[in-house]
Design a protein that fits this description.
- Helix content is about 50%, strand content about 15%.
- The protein has about 450 residues and is α/β, with parallel strands linked by helices.
- It has four domains: about 120 residues, Response regulator (Rossmann fold, 3-Layer(aba) Sandwich); about 170 residues, P-loop containing nucleotide triphosphate hydrolases (Rossmann fold); about 90 residues, Helicase, Ruva Protein, domain 3, CATH 1.10.8.60; about 55 residues, Arc Repressor Mutant, subunit A.
- The protein has a five-stranded parallel sheet with strand order 2-1-3-4-5, sandwiched between helices.
- The chain is elongated and about 100 Å long.
- The chain starts with a strand and ends with a helix.
Length: about 450
C-alpha cells in the first residue's frame, strides 16, 4: 500500500479521495493548497502525490516540479477540470505520472487505479535497487581475500554499518586496504548505485584541495577559465572517501566541518551555497587522538567524522590469509605478464609467512608482482623483503671491499635489477612517510612530479 498526499483546494474532493483511498489500505494525508503541499513534501516522504492543477498562488505544476526536485522517487498524479487539454499537455511534459480529469462518476476509480499502478512501479524500482545493492554487496565483500577471524569480523562490521547513513572513520596502517573497506561500505549501502568519489587529502596543497573538494567559479583565480564542479557535488547522493584526512590543514578542517554541519558547499570564488547529500567516509593511518591533543586536528571535527569507527587489521595479525593473498596476486599478475606460473613454492610461502609485512597487503602485492616479473619458470620463487635485502647485502659483500657489485658469470638483467631497486626505495620512502607522497618525494630528493611519475610507473 502507498503513502499518499492529496492536495486540492476543494474540500469535497479532498474528503472523497481521503475516504476512498483509506478503504483501499493506503495511508493518506490531505492539504488544501500548493504551499502546504510543498511543506509536506519537504518534511516527509510520499510514494504518490495527487494534486489539483488549478489552485491559487502555487498551482499543481509547481508542486510537481518541486516534488521532482526534492523527492524524485515520488509519482505525481495531476487532476483538473474536464476538457482542459492545455493543462493535460503541460502536465505530461512536466513529467507527471498520470493525468486525470475531474469527472463526477469516474474520478475516484481513476485515481484508485492510477495509485495502484504507481505503487507497482515504485515497488519494482525498490526491488531492482535492492537487487543491485545485494549484487554490489556480494561483489564488494568478495574482494576481501582471507579466511581469518579478523577478516570475517571486518565483513560483518561492514554489513552492519552500511545500512546507516552515519559518518565513518576507518583506522588502519598504510597498505591495509582502507579504501577497499570504504568502497564495500558504499556498495552495501542504499547509496550503492550512486557515485563513489575517492580523494587523497595528503596529495594536494591546501589551496588546491579546497577547489578540488568544493569546486570553483570562473575567474576565481588565475587559470579558472570556467566553472568546475567540486568532488562533493560530483558525489551528490553517493559517498565521498577522504583518505589520509590527518594530512588536512587546520584551515581546511574548519571548512570541512562547516560542510558536514550545514550540508552545503560554496565553490571557491562563489557567493551562493550548493546543497549536497553525501555520505562521508574518512580514513587515516595516524593517531587522531594524539593530533587532537597536539592541537593539529580539531576536536569537533574528530567527533563529527568518527561517529562509527572501523579498525582494519594489519596483515601480521592475520597471517593465515597470506598464502591466499599471495596466490590471488599470482593469478592477477602472471597472465598480465604473459607468464604461465602455476604455483608458489613451499619455501617461498614459508618465507612470506615469516615476515611481519610493515607495508601490509600492498607490500605483499608488490612483492608478488615483482617476483612474477623476475620469474623465468612455471613455479614462482619469491623471497620476503627482509630475505631479499639479506641476499642483496650478501651479493654486495661478494663484490669486493670497495662496495661494487660484480656481474654474475651467467649475466644479469640490469634493467630489471635497477627497476627492482628503484621500486624498493620508493616503497620504503612511502612506508616511512606514512603514505604521504610529498614527504616521500622529499626523502628521495625528487620533485613531486617525478615521484608521482615513478609511483604510477610501478603501480605503487
Amino acid at each position: 500500500m502507498a503513502n499518499v498526499l492529496v492536495c486540492d483546494d476543494e474540500r469535497s474532493i479532498r474528503e472523497l479521495l481521503d475516504i476512498a483511498l483509506r478503504k483501499e489500505g493506503h495511508k493518506v494525508e490531505t492539504v488544501n493548497s500548493g504551499e502546504l503541499a510543498i511543506r509536506k513534501i519537504d518534511s516527509a516522504r510520499y510514494d504518490v502525490i495527487v494534486t489539483d492543477i488549478k489552485m491559487p498562488n502555487i498551482d499543481g505544476i509547481e508542486v510537481l516540479k518541486h516534488a521532482h526536485k526534492v523527492s524524485p522517487d515520488s509519482a505525481v498524479v495531476l487532476i483538473t477540470a474536464a476538457g482542459d487539454f492545455d493543462s493535460a499537455v503541460q502536465a505530461l511534459k512536466s513529467g507527471a505520472f498520470d493525468y486525470i480529469q475531474k469527472t463526477p462518476n469516474a474520478l475516484v476509480d481513476e485515481v484508485r487505479v492510477s495509485i495502484g499502478r504507481a505503487a507497482e512501479v515504485i515497488e519494482l524500482r525498490r526491488q531492482n535497487q535492492a537487487y543491485r545493492r545485494d549484487a554490489a554487496s556480494r561483489n564488494s565483500l568478495d574482494n576481501f581475500i582471507g579466511c581469518s577471524g579478523a577478516i570475517d569480523q571486518l565483513k560483518q562490521t561492514i554489513r552492519t554499518v552500511a545500512s546507516t547513513g552515519s559518518t565513518i572513520l576507518i583506522h588502519g596502517e598504510s597498505g591495509t586496504g582502507k579504501e577497499l573497506v570504504a568502497r564495500a561500505v558504499h556498495s552495501c549501502s542504499q547509496r550503492g548505485g550512486e557515485p563513489f568519489v575517492s580523494v587523497n587529502c595528503g596529495a594536494f596543497p591546501e589551496t588546491l584541495l579546497e577547489s578540488e573538494l568544493f569546486g570553483y567559479v570562473k575567474g576565481a583565480f588565475t587559470g579558472a577559465n570556467q566553472n568546475k564542479r567540486g568532488l562533493f557535488e560530483v558525489a551528490n547522493a553517493g559517498t565521498i572517501f577522504l583518505d589520509e584526512i590527518g594530512e588536512m590543514s587546520v584551515a581546511m578542517q574548519v571548512k570541512l566541518l562547516r560542510v558536514l554541519q550545514e550540508r552545503t558547499i560554496r565553490p571557491v570564488g562563489g557567493t551562493s551555497e550548493i546543497a549536497v547529500d553525501v555520505r562521508v567516509i574518512a580514513a587515516t593511518n595516524r593517531d587522531l587522538h594524539e593530533m587532537v591533543e597536539a592541537k593539529t586536528f580539531r576536536e569537533d571535527l574528530y567527533y563529527r567524522i568518527s561517529v562509527i569507527p572501523i579498525e582494519v587489521p594489519p596483515l601480521r595479525n592475520r597471517q593465515e590469509d597470506i598464502p591466499l593473498l599471495a596466490n590471488h596476486f599470482l593469478k592477477r599478475y602472471a597472465p598480465a605478464a604473459g607468464k604461465n606460473i602455476v604455483r608458489i613454492t613451499d619455501d617461498s610461502i614459508q618465507s612470506l609467512l615469516a615476515y611481519d609485512w610493515p607495508g601490509n597487503v600492498r607490500q605483499l602485492e608488490n612483492t608478488i608482482e615483482r617476483g612474477v616479473a623476475m620469474e623465468g619458470t612455471d613455479v614462482l620463487h619469491v623471497l620476503a623483503p627482509e630475505e631479499r635485502s639479506k641476499a642483496k647485502a650478501a651479493a654486495a659483500a661478494m663484490g669486493g671491499s670497495n662496495g661494487s657489485t660484480s656481474v654474475p658469470s651467467d649475466g644479469i638483467d640490469m634493467e630489471a635489477y635497477v627497476a627492482d631497486l628503484e621500486r624498493s626505495m620508493l616503497q620504503s620512502a612511502l612506508q616511512q612517510s606514512g603514505g604521504v607522497q610529498t614527504r616521500a618525494a622529499e626523502m628521495l630528493k625528487l620533485s613531486y612530479r617525478s615521484f608521482r611519475h615513478l609511483a604510477k610507473k610501478y603501480r605503487l
